[in-house]
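Could you help me review a protein record that somebody else here produced? This is what I was given.
***
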Amino acid sequence: MPRLRLMISGVISREQAAAAIEAGADAVGLDPAAFPQAGPEGSAVLAEIALGLPPAVTPILITPALTAGTVAQQVDASATLAVRLARPIAASEYPGLKRIIRGRKLIQSIDPADAEALVEAYAGLADALHLKVDTAEDLNACRRPIEQADLPCFLGLTDPALLPAVAALRPHAVDLMLAGEDGFDASALNRFAAALAAF
């Protein structure tokens, strides 16, 4: 049985990135919205974190942008190797986006409530799917799409208590979403990673 991979999203500093690496993260999610600064300064921070990761840890940009040009610009500025599209984008944007970002992976976020319909829509476009799980109801909505999708699926968690139920679905990866600088707890992160490794 393949091991469950760990993605840690919401990393906003080199210190948090180091803690993610220490916990055994396979990928780190970098969200421009988490930074108080905007524009080039924010992109520079993202790029610094991304370029400081070891080769085994993939930096993934998280963006709400809806057009190929904007997404590609953000990916280049942040030096990330993949991008999670936080909102469903038009299928017509995909060909241009794939061409511009030159082989970087595309992870499409979809709402669990709409998952069954959207899985088929993005099957031939995205490289992976991401579903955010906030409640047990979300988890139930994810079950069938994960079973049917011919794509790797990431399940995003904000509540670590849902880990056993999420792990039972055997997604490609579990994405733990950090709660910013104030909510960051390296020891809790290590406990979560250890619990994940047990599944």
The longest strand covers residues 58-63. The chain has eight helices and eight strands. The helical segments are 14-22, 39-51, 68-78, 94-100, 115-122, 136-148, 163-168, 186-197. The mean pLDDT is 86.
